[in-house]
Amino acid sequence: MMASEQHTVLTREAGAEGPARPSPARPSSGARRHRRWLVPLLAVLLSAQMAAAMVTTAVQQTPTIDEPVYVATATDYLREHRLRYNPEHPPLGKLLIAAGVAVADPHYDASYTGTQGDVGRHLLYESGNDPWRLMLWARLPVIALTVLFGLVAFAFAREVTGTAGGLVALALYAFSPDVIAHGALATLDVPAAGFVLTSAWLVWRARRRPGRYLPLAGAALGAAVATKMSALPAVPVLMALAAVSVLASGRPAGPRRKVLSALAGAAVVALVAVVVVWVTYLAVDPRLRFVPAEPVPAVHRLRGRLVDLLPLPPAYRAGMRVQFGFEDYPWQGYLFGHLYTGSLWYYLPAALLVKTPLGLLALGAAGAVAVVRVRRLRPAAPYLLLPPLVLLAAAMTGARDFGTRYALFVPVFLAVAAACAPVPRRRWTGLLTCALVLCTAVSSLRTFPYYLPYANEAFGGPAHTHRLLHDSNVDWGQDLGRLADRLRQRYPGERVWLVYKGAGVPSAYGIRAADPRTVAADRVHGLLVVSDSAVAKARGRLAELIASSRPVGDVGHSISLYRR
User: Which among 309, 356, 247, 284 is positioned nearest to 81, based on CA atoms?
Assistant: First the structure.
């Protein structure tokens, strides 16, 4: 929808709500020219700020736990064109990572055998490659895509609320610490969330031109499902919204034709999505050979039968069986200082309260209320609220309480919904919106460059996150390089005892350390270094060692240092 068309629609609908107001004076041609370049300039500046934050973070961080697997799988796609590793995640996100890997051109030993984690470690640390250079190139395509999704958020909000709302959405998105943190990694969470947002936006646009936008929406939805299987619950939601868009377009005449057209619109979205998934697998191996490096668990009863019925490639269905196997495992979780086995249904909402800036929480909540209450915004409500709510409800049933990355679509959609908050045209709403956007920006800039362990001010900031949450919320192995720098600068020649949680190899960064859990406690003297996830789960000997040591600092708010 063009900006002028949207302005006309909003003006007409606003007039239906109340008495007509006198038209404001038309701005001069100079003011119009000024506004024409000011909006693109602000959008560029916000996007550039986000890109700079992500690139800086990518340069400084060592591989997180999942990244070596994805990078090795992407390299295998490039060199061997086979579906062998990491079947639990479809190929599209890793093909994106492969674009950067192709530039890095690493040495790869296809004959090496082992688990997917072993292959990732071998590629980064045992094949003569520079892990810093390889990881940076692998991360750059995800960074670029993350910036582009910010423009989708801007366009979506602008079409619903106007240009000012678009800038509000872009600013909140660009300063979201969780989006920056995971957008700077060669992982799949931001691409999956962004593709779902793009599909919802295109389905919204289909209210005007369903023939043009529904196939595009299906392609974006297929891209999400071809990136992470956790996007599957969005499929029926966006199919239903596609049917609503066809009905709202007013194109077919007669009730029977309207119903048939609505069903056809939903079918188009589903069909194109399925085609995109198939094309993604064919892009890796046109013969669709699937020889997994590790066993695929069997899934029985209703779940197994449903998986077998899906019109998707065999490798995709095998990946779903792996995911179901993960769901049956008794994982440990950590929330607000409490270590537990299993999962808590309220874990993700609680973690999101900690990890989302207060300004974004306030504006997102106000925008969600406004989009339901304000009549001219109400048509957008299901497009903005249903996809994240359904995905969040599905994620809350999962067995892995590992971080807000499993619900990254929440801050992404929340940024767009927040643009609806200042729509009731009162002066104080605009001023309050600007203040809350500024608060979000300040909170984000204060945590730079430590975005993964971010917590908002109500919970003490990033220095206190490790007391409330663990794993990818705080410590995902990203600070091994920073630890090496700290040891060289402040503790040269000291005896180091290390309990590290991550995929990196400490010796590759010049860290010489021993595991304190392998010797008697009275022999552990010097500097004790423990990843904060290990601190959260500490029991037995490690807990005794920490209790009898003196804290002397931390590295990146994810690794704690103790003196013994």
Answer: 284
Closest CA to 280 of 228, 324, 355, 238: 228
E strand residue ranges, 243-391: 332-335, 338-341
Q: Which amino acid is at 353?
A: L
For residue 499, the cross-strand partners are: 530
Backbone angles phi, psi at 217, to 5 degrees: -65, -40
pTM of full prediction above 0.90: yes
CA distance 491 to 483: 11
271's tokens: 């069909």
**What is the distance between the alpha carbons of residues 120 and 146, in angstroms, rounded to a whole number?**
24
Chain mean position to CA 82: 27
Return the exposure string of 453-478: e unless at least 16 CB atoms fall within 10 Å of the residue's CB, then b.
bbbbeebebbeebbbbbbbbbbbbbb
Instruction: Using alpha carbons, select from 241, 227, 245 the residue that is nearest to residue 281.
Output: 227
Tens of pLDDT along the chain (564 residues) come to: 334 434 433 333 333 333 333 444 455 565 566 667 899 999 999 999 999 999 999 999 999 999 999 999 999 999 999 999 999 999 999 999 999 999 999 999 999 999 999 999 999 999 999 999 999 999 999 999 999 999 999 999 999 999 999 999 999 999 999 999 999 999 999 999 999 999 999 999 999 999 999 999 999 999 999 999 999 999 999 999 999 999 998 876 778 888 999 999 999 999 999 999 999 999 999 999 999 999 999 888 888 899 999 999 999 999 999 999 999 899 999 999 999 999 999 999 999 999 999 999 999 999 999 999 999 999 999 999 999 999 999 999 999 999 999 999 999 999 999 999 987 667 788 899 999 999 999 999 999 999 999 999 999 999 999 999 999 999 999 999 999 999 999 999 999 999 999 999 999 999 999 999 999 988 999 999 999 999 999 999 999 999 999 999 999 999 999 999
Q: Burial letters for 525-558: b for 16+ Cβ neighbours within 10 Å, e otherwise?
A: ebbbbbbbbbbbbbeeebeebbeebeeeebbbbb
Identity at 372, one-letter amino acid code = V
Asked if residues 189 and 405 have their Cβ atoms less than 8 Å apart, the reply is: yes
Q: Which residues of 345-377 are buried (b: 16+ CB within 10 A; e: fewer)?
A: eebbebbbbbbbbbbbbbbbebbbebbeebebb
Contact (CB, 8 A) for 14 and 23:
no
- Of 288, 50, 266, which is closest to residue 176 (Cα–Cα)? 50
| Cα distance between residue 104 and residue 102, in whole Å | 5
